[in-house]
Amino acid sequence: MCGVFGIRAPGRDVARLTYFGIYALQHRGQESAGIAVSEDGRLTALRDLGLVAQVFDERSLHGLEGELAIGHTRYSTTGGNAWANSQPLLHHGRTRTVALGHNGNLVNADELRASIGKPLASTSDSEVIAALVADDERPLDEALPAAMARLEGAATVVGLADGRLFAFRDPHGFRPLVLGRLGEDPVVASESCALDLVGAEFVREIRPGELIVVADSGVESVQAVEPSDRGSLCIFEFFYLARPDTRLSGVEVHGARVRMGERLAEEAPVEADLVLPVPDSGTPAAIGFARATGIPFSEGLIKNRYVGRTFIQPEQGMREQGIRMKFNPLAEVGGKRLVVVDDSIVRGSTTRQIVQMLFDAGAAEVHVRISSPPVVSPCYYGIDLASEDEMIAAHATVDEVREAIGASTLAYLSLDGLQAATRRPADALCRACLTRDYPTRLPTAAAKHRFESPTAASRRAGT
Ligand code: SF4
Predict the structure, then answer these.
(1) Pocket of ligand 1 (CB under 6 A)
(2) Does pLDDT of 261 surpass 70?
(3) Buried-most residue among 131, 245, 248, 398 (CB within 10 A)?
(4) What is the mean pLDDT of the chain?
(5) Predicted TM-score (pTM) of this structure
(6) Which one-letter DSSP state was computed for residue 168?
């Protein structure tokens, strides 16, 4: 999970536009943020740990001048939350310097890293991509497709090199990427909501395997790598990750989530007095559930919107702490039979605490309804879900999960129901964390901190 943005707009304040672009993509990553600009081919980058609004101010934006810019918000999947892993990263190679922002996770990062034959400054898999392009002696138009052909896994990338902006998507298209236009100036972004925020018009989605290079002459597009015959846009984007006002494959995410709730109501109805969402990602499905059943919708859980999404904070201790700061139940839940709708259960700790909080507030019954099937297997393509051992549903029945979270009843949306709500065919989406059917080979190693030194790793483990 990361957000990427890129623009070519000579004469405009490209850094400021990029700031607002990544501001709209803040939900995709809250660990670090950065912007790189290219001015007559010279690259400058500013990046740091923190939210977009914490990393940049008026003064820092003024220092970023150019005609091209890229931006990135990061949530780590390979390589820890450290400054060196924040992006856009700058890699000085044998042939050129490349600024690069990456969303996704490679499954062959270990092999590629070994083949590069030199130490890298970061411990993420993203610098490998920059190094492949920066060390290639061929012109950029040849170096980029050659690098793309060597990547396996998820790679939605924006970059700057040789005075040009480039953007591409892996042949599966795991993570979204759209092309827009601000007047005559091209813009690329992870989600269409970022185009809306900067006032750009949506042109089209960038295809799996497609490379876009933006030069003075305009936007050049090539199908650099054959698209996989198994399209794999992440289904998690539909029910959890993407912003509700984003359109994925032409489908507005909010509408898809409302349909998930309606279908869930058909599949698992229950007698109750109120339908409560777990805000914000459970809200559209709760609206759908309430609409389909006629049970009144209530904002029974009040969220402190200034606390980060607990799912995004990567350490278990922070997650446990986060939930107590994040939600507070309203008095109206007292004595009521509640349906609580959320988008997913991964570890179960958040759901267990919410159920307990509602019973403590006097709820008579707490019926949990989840607008996705059980998450049973890890993601190797850019979402740090958890290991299989940590997933509550990986080796438990629905009733065992219900007991563990302390709910009166529990039901998940079926895979068919979820699929139908997306209005996309099954073979267009990756659903591997729900089905264990992965569209690529699996990585030989997947530990997040595997490229860190033994000292850094033991410091992180507290040993
Ligand atoms: S494994 Fe799950 S989270 Fe990962 S890309 Fe596939 S559907 Fe998305």
Answers:
(1) 174, 234-236, 379, 381, 383, 430-433
(2) yes
(3) 131
(4) 91
(5) 0.91
(6) E
